[in-house]
Design a protein that fits this description.
With about 200 residues, this protein is an all-beta fold. The chain has strands at about 15-25, 30-35, 40, 55-60, 70-75. Strands 3-2-1-4-5 form a five-stranded antiparallel beta sheet, with no helix packed on it. About 10% of the residues are buried.
Length: about 200
């Protein structure tokens, strides 16, 4: 529906704006708003990324006397989180400065498809890091890890392959299995001050 009849005074109507209260969100995606004298149905302008809710005071306007839009959410008496909604996708870009996202509580990123992250360098500082995935792949030219304690549990099979492998322990190195097989193509050398077999 268009603007109220009392606001239409000719073929060329200047931009008209007024405050209204959101009554409900319809299944069509439009909103039923009340300006005080009557209620009518208007869509949300593309520039209004904040999703209106019932009870919000909004800024409604139009320029042609035929179609009005919700341009902005002015006030939310009941409080609550703001929902930024873009029907056809959202792209945020900074040509020169930084983009900073900060949250006093939790910060969640969720995607129904691929979640991609790229950059020249990635720095992550956290108290606890948990990764839950069906498949985890890491491809790097150099991988370095410095830890106080490492525990790894493989239920089925674990394979190591390398051009050279150097395993060194300061105090004790223990290998145990039901069956242990050590083979070499040319040489197997066991060297120690004492060697106990059996």
């Amino acid at each position: 529906m268009g603007l109220p009849v009392r606001m239409v005074s000719g073929l060329h109507v200047p931009p008209l704006f007024w405050q209204a209260r959101v009554k409900a969100r319809l299944e069509s995606g439009q909103f039923e708003v009340d300006c005080g004298e009557r209620a009518w149905v208007v869509p949300v302008a593309v520039s209004c990324l904040v999703q209106p809710q019932a009870g919000d005071k909004v800024w409604v306007g139009g320029a042609d006397g035929e179609q009005a839009y919700v341009f902005a959410v002015l006030e939310r008496p009941q409080g609550g989180a703001l929902h930024l909604v873009a029907e056809q996708g959202l792209h945020v870009q900074s040509n020169q400065g930084d983009i900073h996202i900060s949250s006093a509580a939790d910060l969640s990123l969720q995607s129904a498809g691929h979640l991609r992250q790229s950059g020249r360098e990635l720095s992550l500082t956290t108290g606890t890091l948990r990764i839950l995935a069906k498949m985890h792949e890491t491809v790097a030219d150099r991988l370095s890890q410095v830890c106080n304690h490492v525990f790894r549990l493989t239920e089925k099979e674990e394979c190591w392959r390398g051009g050279r492998m150097d395993v060194q322990a300061q105090h004790q190195l223990r290998l145990h299995a039901r069956h242990t097989l050590m083979t070499a193509r040319e040489l197997v050398k066991v060297d120690a001050d004492q060697i106990h077999m059996g």
